[in-house]
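Review form for a predicted model. The reviewer records the input and the model, then writes brief findings.
Reviewer: anonymous (R2)
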Amino acid sequence: MKRNLANLLSLVALGLASAFAQKPAYPFNDPTLPTDKRIENLLSVMTIDEKVACLGTRTAVPRLGVPNIGSSEGIHGVVQREKRGPHEPITTTQFPQPPGMGESWDPDLVRQAAGVEGYEARFITQTAKYDRQMLMLWGPQADLARDPRWGRSEEVYGEDPFFNGTMVTAFVKGLQGDDPKYWQSAALLKHFLANSNENLRTKSNSEFDQRLFWEYYSVPFRMGFVDGGAKAVMASYNAWNGTPMAVNPILKSIVEDQWGVDVLSSDGGAVRLLVTDHKRYATNEQAVVACLKAGINQFLDRYVDETKAALKDGSITEKEIDELLGRKLRIAVKLGLLDPPEMVPYSTIKDSPEPWNTDKDKSVSQKLALESVVLLKNSNSFLPLKKDSIKSIAVIGPLADSVHWDWYGGTPPYAITPLQGIKDEVGPNVKVNYAADETDSAATRAAQSSDVAVVVVGNDPTCGDMAHQWHNTPDGGGTLPCTEASDGREGRDRDIITLAQEQLVKQVYDVNPKTIVILVSSFPFAINWSQENVPAILHMAHSSQDEGTALAKVIFGDYNPGGHLVTTWPKSVDQLPPMMDYNIRDGRTYMYFKGEPLYPFGFGLSYTTFKYSNLKTSSPQLAKDGSVTVSVDVTNTGSVAGDAVAQLYVKHLKSKVERPHEELKGFQRVMVQPNETKTVTIPLKASDLAYWDEKSGKFQVEAEPVSLMVGDSSADIKLKSTVQVK
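Model under review:
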């Protein structure tokens, strides 16, 4: 019996050995080898068809057991809202649109939100019941809100390059995690470069000089790559100075060679547009080859047949494909996809509990929603309302009982509307009178019969129709018009910036002067009448699952708003240069704005007041290769705790080149108790004061005095000092 058992065990051992022999371990599976050696080996055992296939968005090589990186949109939450074949939509945590995230002025909280998103992408990827791979998240959006008419400004953090770069860096770090060896998920920045017009964007040309490239448009991208560690980017549809970005030489010479980016992705349909709209190439094959030569190693449209034809006729070589794919496969190594799961700390994120239903993810969502609320006006301390002093409240407006999603938002596990948030906040002892609009005088009646009226107005982020036709053509084709000329979104810029719904505000105010306006919007509106007349105005961006809760807590004083604006809000489009003028020196952003805005960049009120004092620098002089620390004391001079946002601006006093009126170079959000003083410290590097010298082709730090200015906004400077750059 023992002999038979021994024979049986021997047979089993031989069988196992045979099974392992059928699936040999390749050197690319060896985590002790250098990354380049592993990738070299992997490429050597892949077929040319497998290599070409991996130039799309699926990087799996099933024959060799190589998993797929996969992808998903992800600028303010993982997007899995659509039914895909047998797969049902997946709920995920949804944060405010990027302008709202920016309005928190809290990079660490933005990092936490991105951490939630990266974790949820891992969870979905590694949980068998979902069977979807999405470890490369398409975000953050590193473009700049150059013009408030830009329909897609809902996707970016603001108008200032340093501010946006700081938020981009934070978001990248949150997505990719803090493990020293592996990434939680991979960030792909969008859309390089100077992509801030929607009308005719598939053929438009952004014209500006080298200085603006280095000092403005590329700054958030560079910071995301160099400071944040992102290794992937998507090229934009437009051209820069005549050359479409998908084939622009700077993809290789700057993005890849100088900033170390591994994945250069085309945008959806960009190859075809090189033929049809830019008219740069005669055939799709020529366009694909040009993209490959420019460094593109991820395609979002047809490329397989064209690439194989180019390999056959010699237009591209397998060696060139290997070089392109080799860079892309570094992402798979960083994600731990070629290593044993027990070595990868993120491999245990799966099965349960579903993270979007946990208190951890909900708490980050709730905090970001609260911090994103901006108090624009509060005459005679009208807010906060006291629940015990009112018996009824009217909640009115087309956005009062909805949370609006955009094309890059997912499906949340829950969504609290302003109406629901106010009902939850006041409880059963306060009557809530709701009216969506002025139909049959419903809004007027609700306002007349209430102690206070709250009017919730704003834009529609998915206005119009034709969700998958993203551009306009001279003959009027493409996306359908939005109902309101002040609405915009991807594929359509705004014609005006006035708010048609302000008429509803006027009607409500006429019957009840105790009116609060809540503007829920993706971009600035010229609400001049409301600013002049109504006692209180709040702003919040769309798409937070906790929108209503945050607004209600602010209205009734459970939370003191501390958000600040991230763009200049003009009083009129007459204050703006032509839409296609990409030279921001002609009057764009707070740095060059001409005239008086409705609200300046960095503006935001509080239920308390702050005093700034004792502005100091760690040294009166700043070496060209050095840094100083700027410190300022912030005292809460009011009666309630609140968040101050200390903002550091600089002005060059004796520069030999044209500089902005002022430039943001540091900021910090800090909570201060009544009568408490906190010292805020902000680092300032000399390299951040440099300008791009076109003659030498590099940044130059000038020896000059530089004014340091600290305040509540770009237009409210409290203290000034000077540092001498040596």
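Findings: Residues 463 and 482 are 5 Å apart (CA to CA).
Further findings: The first helix runs from residue 2 to 22.
Recommendation: see findings above.
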